Amino acid sequence: MCHIFAGQDPQRYASQTRRLRLNGQSTSIRLENSFWQVINQIAANDGVTTPIFISKLHAEVLELHGEPENFTSLLRCACLKFMESSRTEMPMVIVAD
Question: Which of 52, 59, 93, 97 could cysteine-pair with 48, CB 3.0–4.6 Å?
Fold first, then answer.
């Protein structure tokens, strides 16, 4: 069973840092490539760029709960929520960077 997970392409779990602005502040976010692919797909489904999607998500979280303790963890969990809902609603298409 673990071979399914251990045998995956190392590029899937390699990390990538992207710089963007959240509420006017320059910041960087470091995520694994697989999560960036899902975030790119979410943004594409919403018809916006990835930085715009991330900024909108951050603004909504601020409004609902205040500053998140760990925004990158929130992004990973958002990816999981998207994949969970995609299983029943639509097939997921991988969008290249």
Answer: 52
Q: Which tokens hold the place of 84?
A: 């969970």
Q: What is the pTM of this model?
A: 0.83
Q: Which amino acid does the sequence have at 46?
A: D
Find all residues with CB under 8 Å of 85, minimum gap 6, and list them.
Answer: none
Rounded to whole angstroms, how far apart are CA atoms 34 and 13? Answer: 6
Containing 28, the helix (H) or strand (E) segment is strand 25-32
Distance CA 31, CA 13 (A): 9
Longest dimension (CA), the chain: 46
The amino acid occupying position 86 is: S
pLDDT (tens digit per residue) in 3-30: 888 999 999 999 999 999 987 889 999 9
DSSP state, residue 24: T
Domains assigned to the chain: 11-89 (1.10.3990.20)
